[in-house]
Amino acid sequence: MTAPAHLAVGAAICSRVRRPWLGLALAFGAHFLLDAIPHFEQAHLVGEAIGLPGRYVWAAFGATTFGALTLVVLLLARRFRARPAHPRLRYLIAGGLLSDLPDCLKYLGGAESWFGRFHSAFHAQPYWGTALYRLFAEPPVPATRPIPDEVLIHSPWAWLGWLLMIAFELAVTIIAAAVALTPPSGRSRRA
């Protein structure tokens, strides 16, 4: 999943777990559970389809991630009445950042490092675009045969699957952010 989803889920977990050591461990582990859910990672194909080099598409994802992180921090600061030293605020931000840390470690260590291979193992799932293409393409495509990117780019079924994955990830992000920004019931707003 993208960084905003990881950040929001990590903050949401920490917003509900009172023990920081447990909340931070769960936020870190949640990264791998989120990555096991099929999610959109074909930005390079979108760039190809609209005539942009992949690096520009990834730069747009990076800018979106930075914007989402800034928005989450500002909203959390508002929840804690703009007191950046508030320990609960620091805990929620740490949970969000820790939930995205595995992606950073993978890129720093390289895809072939032990951590890169471990991290990538959670991504071994069918993408919805590819699955829809296999189901509805004429003639049907066997599951054992790889589908070239050039074919997927021109398939409305692949695009539908990618849009569904993006919508699902956006829903996860919005729901998790709402959980992180809502004080738990039974506790005061200043918790």
Description of the structure:
- This protein has 191 residues and is mainly alpha-helical.
- The chain has a domain of 131 residues.
- Helices cover 71% and strands 0% of the residues.
- Helix 2 packs across helix 5.
- The longest helix has 26 residues.
- It is elongated, with a radius of gyration of 19 Å.
- The relative contact order is 0.18.
* Total DSSP E strands: 0
SSE run: HHHHHHHHH
Structural class, from helix and strand content?
mainly alpha
Indicate the mean pLDDT: 79
What is the subunit arrangement here? Answer: single chain
Overall outline: elongated
Low-pLDDT parts are none
Count helical runs. Answer: 9
| Biggest sheet record | none
* Beta-strand residue percentage: under 5%
CA gyration radius, whole angstroms:
19 Å
